[in-house]
Each structure stands twice: as C-alpha cells, then as structure tokens.
Design goal:
574 residues, alpha+beta, eight-stranded mixed sheet, 33% helix, globular, disordered C terminus
C-alpha cells in the first residue's frame, strides 16, 4: 500500500509529537508512525521535565532570566562541542515553541519547578532557582480508549496517585521535615479524592505524552502504532519518504516535503553500544524505551548522514533491578550518610554532582582501577532510617530480592562489609574515617560535595552545616551495587540549526530532519538542567516542522495528499 503526505514523522516521543503537531498547525498534511504498540517512547517513562530558558511559564513565574544569561550559561555548559548556531537556535526558538503550541492546544499546561537548580548554577548565567518546568497532572480518562496505549514508567504507582517533581523532592524528606509530612498528607488526600471521583491522574512524563497525544488527536493527525520504519526512500540524494511495516504489512509513505526522524537512541542495542561506547555496557542498565535500538540512526547513516556523540549517553548512577528496569538514583546521592567508592574502597567523585557527570567519572575510574563498575554505594543504618531508598520508605526493610541477587550486601561492621565486597578493609575504613571528618566540619575537601546549589537540592535541610553530608557511623552498614545507567543515548545524526540532517562533508541531505535522541544532542557531553533532554527534543521538532512548512515547491502545491484508509486514520491499533 502507498500513501502520501507533506511530512512523515517517525517516533512518538516528545520530539516526534511536537514536530507532527507543529506541522499540522502550519497546515501541512502529516502522519506519525511509531514502531511500538504504545506511544510516548522514553518521554512517557521519564520525569517529564522540560528545560527551555525564557519560556512563558518561567516568565509568568518571574524567573530572573534573559536571553543573554541563557546563552552565556549554555555556552559554559556545552563549550565548542556543539556549533554555536545550533545552541542559539534552541534558545531562540524555545520560547516561541511554547507560545505557538500554547495558543492552539487546550492541553498545553505546565508549572515551574521552583528551586530545582540548574545542574551547574555556579557557571556564568546559571540559576540556583532553576529553569525547569513540568506538565501539570492530567486525568487519563480524557484519553478514552487510548489510555492503555501510553508507554509505562519504569516504576508503577498505585491507582489514583499522581506525584509531581516537586512532590518527589519533598517526599524524600518525609521522615525529616514537616514539609515532607505535609506533602505526604496532600498526596494522600488527592489520591483519596481521585479514587472517589474515579479519576485516573497521569503525571510526569506520562502527563506530557498524554497532553501531546490529545493535542494531535484534536488536530486530526493520523498516528500509526505498530509501524516500524524499515528504510528511507531516496531519489538521488534526496529523502522522499519511508518504507515501513504497518501491523506486519509493508507500506510506502511518500513525503512531499520531508521526513522527520525522532525514533530515539540506541540504548537497547548492545552491539551498537559496544561499537561506540567504551567500558562495560549492558542494556539492562538503561531506563530508555525498550524499542530504542537505533533503527532511525542506522537509516540516516544509510542515507549518508554523519553521526556524532555516539560515545555518550544521558547517564545516571543506577541500581540494577533483578525483576525489571533499573532504579535511577536521583535524590539518594545527595542525602547525608552515604558515599560511592571504587574497587579499592576509595571515593572518586562528588556523589551529589549531576548524574551524567558522576557516570563520566565512573568510566574514567574504571579505566584506571578495573572492577570499579559496578561501584559501591555505601550507607549506614542512620541513612536507612531517615530516607527513601529504592522506592522504600525509611526504616522499612529493603526488598529481599536485592539481597538474593547480590545487589545489596549488609554487615555489622565496615570490615565485614569490605570482605563481602572484596575491597581492601583498611582502605574502606580510611575512606569512611576521612569522609566522616569532612562531614562533621561540613566541608568536603576532596570533591567539594555540597558546594553547589544543585548538590543541596536533594539534601537534608535539617543536617548542618552541610545538608549533603553526615558521618557513616551506625551499623549495620550496607553496600549497593551501582551501575552506569542511562535515560537514553546522546549520539545520533548530525543536524544543523534547522534540524536538517548533514552528511560527512557538512552538506544538507535534502528532505531529512532529525530531533530528540535520534540526533546528536545540543547539550554536547554535559547537561544544563532537569529536562535538558526533552526540552531540546521538543524545540528541534518544532524547528524541523517550521522549516518544512516554510518550503514552497511547485510539486507540493500541485499534488494533493492521498489519505490513509479509515482504519489507519482512526489510530485503530489495539
């Protein structure tokens, strides 16, 4: 079967849905194809944060930002790793993207995560109060029969509950602060109300994916699930469409103006990981969408595209889960009473640093001290009694499955723990003693833990003088295997400031665009703030669609779109 549209979008994460929505709003005929039977990709599985400086939500909240501050900060984070034109395109078009879609979609509703610091607030232009926003929770009943089609997060929540980023921050202090307890009561009351009303609240990444999906549905965009891309169609050096399989049947979808690849990274492709990324690799360590095996990147390469940043990912220290996706350690590393050590039983990093930087350091250390991946996250009973860990409330026993799998080890003394880990007991004891001294003084002389506002965001405000540090002194002691997990890979097709894909000579491949983790990240090897994966994905999806809409060709004007059959157009996938 053959169909024809102005634009074909591949992938239903934030990048793809934003591109398709923008194209529809610009009056183009567009279809979106998705490999999975579910929509939302890694976006739906994420925290849903969006980092786009100077957007209308931030302006309404009175955030003291400016275009010049944002440019200065992003340049400090990214350096020369990504062309300045691409950095500027992201910053210049980001606010416009929010304004444009917000004026057209009734589902476009976000809130500022005040206090969630930029990841490097000490850099020029950085903001300690942060620039991150998130979608407001939304009632899943609005999706109707499509509710079961949304990709699921790595950890399921009880029915009726919807926890926001700010709630998560406060709940981590449930045993320590009145704010933590009040937040727990608030979440509990809202959950009870939702159950009484029969509401099915969606929050975080699921809320963002749902809002985009509902907007696409209102705009009449046909979305084909169960439709994996097989190859790009070329006429000479120009991309003119895609070949795909729709529910097992081959289809040809022509694109009069172009194709936008937004099919995610290659985090679940072990062969590609080993080809491009040095050091230990394991697809069980990623929380990215399981369908992300790099077909979009490979298809682009076959069309002559260059790739970049293929040796990097949106890393984060994680705990392997014997029953499913790993646990991405976000807050735990900033909470007092825990350290990370290598195979020698020695600290090697500021544990509270931004997660991508911690894993970069893990790989550096592994090259010097083999056996340091997995690393060891060490804490004492005080830590266990005070803070959530692996989703378990304070003082509650940790799940036995982690002990059975050897992921968590426990001992009455540090010497016994060292023996179980196979690390030198004297070095581990010396490491803990040195750290305890720093904790009592409130100053980490080795790695400056707690100096940054980002470090302190998930710290314990009741611990003085440094909210990220407390001595490890009360047994039993615990050691948790910590692996280099990720939210997805960073590398992909090289694109310009218009989201057009480039070849090895830097020339444009006509008709081909890329956004999200299908493209090389505008963040380079670093991370500007919470949502700096999704924010640029959405912005470059928007940029791609606008560039396509601004094209005027005689062929486009003359050729009417052939619409898909009724079943395909109504998103019939079950």
């Amino acid at each position: 079967m053959e169909f024809e549209f102005d634009v074909v979008v591949v992938g239903s994460g934030a990048a793809g849905m934003t591109a398709a929505l923008t194209a529809a709003y610009r009056g183009l005929s567009v279809t979106l194809i998705e490999k999975s039977r579910l929509f939302g990709g890694s976006t739906a599985r994420s925290g849903g944060g969006v980092w786009v400086p100077n957007n209308p939500v931030l302006q309404a909240a009175g955030v003291p930002d400016s275009p010049e501050m944002a440019r200065t900060y992003l340049k400090a984070v990214v350096g020369d790793r990504v062309p300045e034109a691409k950095q500027r395109a992201f910053l210049d078009h980001g606010p416009a993207m929010f304004q444009y879609i917000g004026a057209r979609s009734k589902y476009w509703d976000f809130v500022y995560d005040r206090g969630y610091s930029d990841y490097h607030p000490e850099y020029p232009g950085g903001l300690a109060q942060g620039r991150s926003i998130e979608p407001k929770p939304i009632d899943g009943r609005l999706l109707g029969g499509d509710l079961h089609k949304i990709n699921q997060p790595t950890m399921s929540a009880p029915k009726g509950i919807a926890i926001t980023v700010s709630d998560f921050h406060d709940l981590n202090m449930i045993a320590r602060t009145w704010k933590g307890k009040k937040t727990a009561l608030k979440v509990g009351a809202l959950t009870a109300l939702n159950l009484i009303k029969g509401a099915l609240p969606l929050s975080l990444g699921k809320a963002l994916a749902a809002r985009l999906w509902l907007s696409l549905r209102d705009a009449g965009v046909p979305i084909w699930l169960n439709t994996p891309l097989t190859e790009l169609i070329m006429e000479g050096d120009t991309v003119v469409g895609v070949r795909a399989e729709h529910e097992g049947r081959p289809v040809v979808i022509k694109a009069r103006r172009g194709v936008v690849l937004a099919a995610g990274g290659f985090e679940h492709n072990l062969e590609m990981r080993k080809q491009y990324i040095s050091g230990p690799q394991n697809t069980a360590w990623t929380v990215g969408a399981t369908e992300n095996v790099g077909e979009g990147i490979v298809a682009g390469q076959k069309a002559g595209a260059a790739v970049d940043l293929m040796d990097d990912a949106w890393w984060g220290p994680s705990v392997r889960n014997p029953d499913g996706p790993p646990f991405f350690c976000l807050a735990e590393r900033s909470q007092p009473g825990a350290i990370i050590v290598n195979a020698n039983g020695e600290r090697f990093v500021n544990e509270s640093a931004p997660y991508v930087n911690v894993v970069h350091k893990m790989y550096e250390v592994e090259a010097e001290v083999p056996g340091s991946i997995p690393a060891h996250f060490i804490f004492d009973q005080n830590f266990r009694d005070r803070y959530l860990f692996l989703g378990n409330f304070p003082k509650r026993p940790l799940p036995q499955k982690y002990f059975d799998a050897g992921i968590i080890k426990q001992a009455d003394t540090l010497a016994e723990l060292a023996a179980k880990l196979g690390v030198p007991a004297d070095r581990l004891a010396a490491t803990v003693e040195r750290f305890n001294g720093f904790a009592r003084k409130g100053r980490d002389e080795d790695f400056l833990r707690g100096d940054s506002a980002y470090d302190r965001y998930y710290g314990d405000p009741t611990v003085k003088p440094n909210p990220t540090m407390a001595p490890l002194e009360r047994g039993p002691f615990y050691a948790v295997e910590m692996v280099p997990g990720d939210l997805g890979t960073k590398g992909g097709l090289v694109t310009d400031e218009h989201a057009r894909v480039l070849n090895d000579q830097g020339a444009v491949i006509e008709g081909l665009y890329a956004a999200g983790n299908n493209s090389a990240a505008v963040m380079g090897n670093d991370y500007a703030g919470a949502g700096a994966t999704i924010g640029p994905a959405m912005v470059f999806g928007y940029i791609a669609a606008n560039h396509l809409a601004d094209q005027e060709t005689a062929e486009t004007v003359a050729a009417p779109a052939k619409r898909p059959g009724r079943r395909a157009a109504q998103n019939q996938e079950k």
